[in-house]
DNA sequence: GAATCCTGCATACCGAAGGTACGTACCCAA
DNA sequence: TTGGGTACGTACCTTCGGTATGCAGGATTC
């Protein structure tokens, strides 16, 4: 579709740079970059990574591939930018939810609610949960995760497990956080893929609360290690 | 690379079909189909789905694309065949591990061990965990999962939770199984991505055993619902 | 056992899509 | 005003999934 005339409308310049703050040119550039990420996020969410062509993205952003390859190294780099933004947004939302809650357990429950809400968002499901590991590769996926949503879970787990009187080594806490993160992801998945999210959320809260209260009772009782497999622990 | 002469070696025909059992032709056909799945599994595991070209697959199987498209509808269908085989193998391995163990908790622990071993296999990590959801799409991914590895987890959870005296509705059990499956997947992931799998496996057993024993203590005590969020349950 | 049928491939080709090389307009500084 | 470099646009290349078609040779029928 040759539509080469009137190739770009006027983007909204956030502020008026008087002398040498942000130049006019830089503002335009940032705007088109944002537009590319916006359109990419939308199309990736709707159609998936493989089924979204760069042509459709640049068409949606009303630029050409030259612009895209000026701002990003390639399709994967563009996806990574989208991925980071979704993750950062999600992490901020969770952090807001757990901030100010005094009790560690209250934090945990608030965090659970926030996480359940986020994981139901189509963009999070598609871009982070579904396509993230495949497109970015497992290594980069975990790296990115580590710095955003997962970090919140670590803090929650740390707060909860620190309530007990026993000392906990960092490695063990990381392990616990990782596993609990998997628990939460699956929990969110149940809700998100359910035909009745409300009812499913009730069941999920029950199940997770079940596991949590089980841990809580152990922490309160001052139990240090599960008796179930005490024999296999002495090698540390 | 034109290498059209001597295009195929003699495949091993399993049995001699005397009258109308399995014809010679059909044996050849099944052999080339298996060869395609074999090579595809190997290349998908090593390079991932997107980075593996059909040309390299058919070259590895010493056939052409004509053969591939005769046996499979396309690249995705070939992946699905590989996926199914990996899942079925894994499910069988787990089932062997938990068979014959009398106690429900012994079954759970044996199943955990088997699952941890499987999820460390490169082919399972890459094909099922990493690329499965993206390539097959979430719907088909869960469908396939439902019939194989996940089914074992459901049985284990059912056995464990039936140990209590309380009755449990099916929906709640499914929810619990899904969440616990997520827990196990994350647990396996920790081990698989660790630089010291042996030590990581110890920590994982401790953490999962922790959660299990927490549940166990509640089941033994006859607790029906966690007190933590009793107020949000009465809507069922 | 000869003619026929049909399966099981091979060959050649097409179009889409990611990526690249190069040209250019225009903002900014001097 | 002029040089320079950023921020794109344009044209093209290559790879790869998919398709249409041809054909050989084992199976079937008589």
Record the SSE blueprint.
The structure is a homodimer of 236-residue chains.
Chain A: H1 24-47, H2 54-60, H3 65-71, H4 75-98, H5 104-118, H6 122-130, H7 132-136, H8 138-146, H9 149-161, H10 170-192, H11 197-221
The first copy, chain A, binds a DNA duplex (30 and 30 nucleotides) through α1 and α3.
Keywords:
homodimer; mainly alpha; 11 helices; 68% helix; 0% strand; disordered N terminus; disordered C terminus; DNA-binding
Q: What would you note in describing this structure?
A:
- Two copies of one chain form a homodimer.
- Helix content of chain A is 68%, strand content 0%.
- Residues 1-20 and 226-236 of chain A have low confidence and may be disordered.
- The longest helix of chain A is centred in the C-terminal third of the chain and has 25 residues, at 197-221.
- Chain A has eleven helices and no strands.
- Chain A is mainly α and 236 residues long.
- Chains A and B meet through helix 6, helix 7, helix 10 and helix 11 of A and helix 6, helix 7, helix 10 and helix 11 of B.
